[in-house]
Write a structure and sequence with these properties.
With 445 residues, the protein is an alpha/beta fold. It contains 15 helices and 18 strands.
Amino acid sequence: MGDPNRGMLILPEFLIDRPGDPPRRGWGARVVGSEIVEVASNDSLRQAHPEDNVLDAAGHVLSPGFVNAHTHLYGVLAHGIPLARAPSGFWPFLEDFWWPLVEDRLDHPMIRAATDLQCSRMLASGVTSFYDVLEAPGALPGCLDTQAEVVRRHGLRGRLSFEATQRVSEANGQDGLRENADFIRACHAADDRLDGLMCFHTTFTCSAEFIRQAFELGGSLGVLTHMHCSEGTYEPERALRDYGARPIAYYDHLGVASPAMLASQCVQVDAAEIELMAEQGVRMTHMPLSNCEVGGGIAPVPELVAAGVTVGLGSDGYIDDFFEVMRGAFLIHKASHQDPRVMPANLVWRLATEGGAQAIGLDGVGRIEAGWKADLILIDGDLPTPLTEHNLYDQLLLYRNQGNVRWVMVDGDVLVQQGVEAGADPEALKAAVHEQARRLWSQAA
């Protein structure tokens, strides 16, 4: 057997060690097993560890892997689905399209094929950790196990959940909560890169008793509880009518607004809700591109960040190149605020890495620092103009994409080299999704 103390030296041109802070030119990292054990200048690492394996990454930037803090892996099956007419708003999007034509028709073969392709695409995009929300009330039970088998094969660090809802029936809602609880227990027993979160849909598809039950289950299992929140104007308007309070205030009234609460979207939250989220430690995930697609609006993310709310970024299963997601967060809020200083590139990079990890409850993920997990990516830095300490975040965010991610490591395992995932057959993965998409589309027609 080899020396367990022999490490790998990763020696880039630039290092992003603490996302948001200035990058370091000529610095790299030493990895032993699944952890980063040292961060120093490339020269000092070479001198201190002459027996280590060396990855000479001249011309590249070493960054923490991206954290896709909210996605729907099955969503790829709906890309290009035939529609007689586009939904006219958020509620018609759910009631006339997403629920009857997509969610309610998913089965295990569809879920398996979509998860397989999307795991490979996430790795290609530099995503090393993710949180997925599976919405498939007809695929219970066992749908999370179907996903987990695929995710483990690809080697990603993942959080999986099933979105429990009472909109189908009370029994189906209970089955959904049970799916989450059983999966979380199984993950804790396995002690690997996978875990689960508790999850339910919204205030308008779940009763107060059901919401409290979900949080109690999540708390007893030591995990966060997630829900979609105020993705459009429909939910806050209905909550005001039915409960006399906007959604965040309603959750606070139920006694569940806390650091154990992960609220995604939060497009239509007001100033009082932002203050309440900050006071109670509620976490939030932002999907800048999909919010535009459904016409929900633009989430007040600069205000949430300024208030001290923990924020991560997600693709929502819509556009999956994570550089595009970051560009969306970088550009949309500048236009909304009519201020180019809003959402600077270094802040967006932090939300895409350490911020996302914090939002979904990952410890030791999102920095390149001794004692942190070795979840790392190398990005080709060959740009038309020179990379420097002062322009690196802007240059990478605006002018790189998933094709420029050359190398990916998760938990110390190298999963992508020269932009290619080891053992993956992209054409076979795509063919399987085509087959399952046609099945879904034929049912929807």
